[in-house]
Specification:
Number of helices: 9
Mean pLDDT: 88
Radius of gyration: 17 Å
Shape: globular
Helix content: over 70%
Low-confidence stretches: none
Order of helices and strands: HHHHHHHHH
Distance between the termini: 31 Å
Number of domains: 1
Strand content: under 5%
Length: 152
């Protein structure tokens, strides 16, 4: 393994940590005033009952990203959440001051979905395996299929 390949294994670390912190910081206020958060969700046409599950996703999922466990699954859930947030709440506000952060978080989560947790994570350093190893196999299969298509 080349030194470049070894360094690439650390690539997900900074984005995983910053995304985890960001989701936690955005999830915690949803629990400070649950009825207010439910009212906000209702005013956007969303079921108010979604406030608690979304808050839990952001806090627990943020912790999962931060420590690097169930990274691919968590990132996939965050991609879905960010698509919903952009379409329901942010799209009408435009890019700047609207959905730029959500789009950036979605791109980070897509990257984590593709790469996994990387080094310095519970999955890599403690468990010595990914909890969702089929994700890596699925990505590898997609790459092989794309390569075969481009050769023809």
């Amino acid at each position: 393994m080349t030194s470049s390949s070894k360094l690439m294994m650390f690539g997900p670390l900074p984005i995983r940590i910053l995304a985890g912190i960001t989701f936690i910081v955005h999830g915690l206020p949803k629990f400070e005033n649950v009825s207010g958060t439910q009212g906000f969700f209702g005013s956007m046409g969303l079921p108010p009952e979604l406030a608690v599950p979304i808050g839990l996703l952001e806090v627990i999922g943020g912790i999962f990203l931060l420590i690097g466990v169930i990274t691919r699954i968590t990132a996939g859930l965050f991609v879905i959440e960010m698509i919903g947030a952009i379409l329901v709440a942010k799209l009408s506000k435009g890019f700047v001051g609207g959905y730029e952060l959500d789009l950036l978080l979605m791109a980070i989560c897509i990257s984590l979905l593709l790469t996994g947790p990387g080094r310095i994570s519970v999955e890599w350093d403690i468990l010595k395996r990914e909890l969702f190893p089929k994700g890596k196999e699925a990505i590898s299969q997609l790459r092989r299929e794309q390569e075969s298509l481009t050769k023809h």
